[in-house]
Amino acid sequence: TSDTAVGCAPFTVNFTHNSITSCNAVKEYLWNFNDPSSGVNNTSTNANPSHVFNTPGTYSVTLVVINCMGIKDSTANIITVNSASALNTSSPTVVCAGTQVTLTASGATTYVWSPATGLSATTGGSVNAVPSVTTSYTVTGTSLCGTLSSVVTVSVNPFPVITASSPGVVRPGETVTLTSAGTVSYTCLP
Q: Which of 17, 131, 132, 189 has the most neighbouring CB atoms within 10 Å?
């Protein structure tokens, strides 16, 4: 048996044999952790060994015992090792005022976003944001391997303030000059 079957890398597991033999003695123990990356530590002849799993994956740990009459028996135990949490978020975004943008996070099991201002929801791996000003949103992701936070900033470009001037009243056929300011390009409509 193992003291636990699921954990996060690096994951230390303590194993215990529960062997009962007809001659009341176990002559040999051979544990195989099926963890080739552990090198010489991939096996043990101890009755109750510990093993550190450094690589995420699923391992079928086997124990072969030989009793005092030379009879072999074996058993297996499944160990699941998860990777340490890594929270991935969408890239910082630049939008025009009033534009909706989708913010995403992955790598955890649950997600909480803050502040709530301009968000369609405060939980979930994907939320919509329509901030009125540049806002930094913090997402906190929680999984079996812990809690991590990340910040995504949505930069908001405000609407331009356009000013225009005219000479006032003009007579038909008279040429006038119109001036404007506050934006990069202009279109004059009749």
A: 131
Q: What b-and-e string marks burial along 22-44, b requiring 16 or more CB atoms within 10 Å of the CB?
A: eeeebeebebbbbbeeeeeeeeb
- Max Cα separation, the chain? 120
Pairing of strands 6-8, 72-82: parallel
For residue 39, the model assigns a pLDDT of: 92
DSSP 52-96: EE-S-EEEEEEEEEEETTS-EEEEEEEEEEEPPP--EEPPPEEEE
CA-nearest of 116, 95, 92 to 103 is 92
Distance between CA atoms of 5 and 11, rounded to whole angstroms? 10
For the chain (190 residues), the mean pLDDT of every run of 10, in chain order, is 82 88 79 94 94 92 88 90 80 86 90 95 94 93 86 87 71 75 66
Specify the pLDDT at position 3.
Answer: 74
**pLDDT given at position 166:** 66
3-class secondary-structure state, position 38: helix
Using alpha carbons, select from 51, 53, 42, 39 the residue that is nearest to residue 9.
Answer: 53
Distance (Å, whole) CA 127 – CA 147: 19
